[in-house]
Amino acid sequence: MRNFKENIVMKYLSLFFILITLASCNKSEKSNDLLKKATEVYFISNLPEKIKIDSSLILTKKAIEVDNENVNALQHLSILLFKNKDIDGLLEVNDRLINLRPERATFLLQKGIYLEIKGNSSESKKYFKKAISKYEEHLNKDSLNFDLNIEYIDALNINNDTILANKKLNNLKKMKLEEYQ
Q: Cα–Cα distance between 91 and 33 in angstroms, integer?
């Protein structure tokens, strides 16, 4: 009985949010409005976890349908797919993110992680190396970027290059990063 009620609530909430959002102006705004509703349902609502995920998933997919280049919506979709343990879905969304933002090393690293989880170690290593190379490329242009340095060190650790990761971390400690913001 409870599942039936939860499903009805989820369907009505989703329909309500979709109808409200469709009254918006352009596709980017509509997509972002849907994404906002999706994140509100997921992060703020007091609904049961499964209903939050399913409702947010419906709204997020609709946001992507309205604007298939909405990177924020694709990233939120990744969160939901991870919660649903949908590795194939994560790989598909991740490919879209890589195509939309090829300069983002994070997406390459994520793909490597998803491939590793799926059991494809040889392919995951290729993506770890691509990500590390991309981080190095970015750091050559912006060596004081603290967040980028931390992501790079994480990528090195994920790739089991702990010696270089520790060396980079020690170098980071020596920098006067409090002057950089």
A: 25
112, two tokens: 């490597």
One-letter identity of residue 20: I
The C-alpha atoms of residue 85 and residue 135 are separated, in whole angstroms, by 28
pTM (two decimals):
0.80
What is the number of H-type helices and E-type strands within the chain? Answer: 9, 0
| 77 and 60 Cβ atoms separated by less than 8 Å | yes
Segment 123-179, tens digit of pLDDT: 999 999 999 999 999 999 998 898 999 999 999 999 999 999 999 999 888 876 665
Structure tokens at 105: 């090393």
Q: Distance (Å, rounded) from C-alpha 38 to C-alpha 17?
A: 9
| DSSP for residue 45 | -
Q: Which tokens go with 147?
A: 């967040």
CB 16 within 8 A of CB 7: no
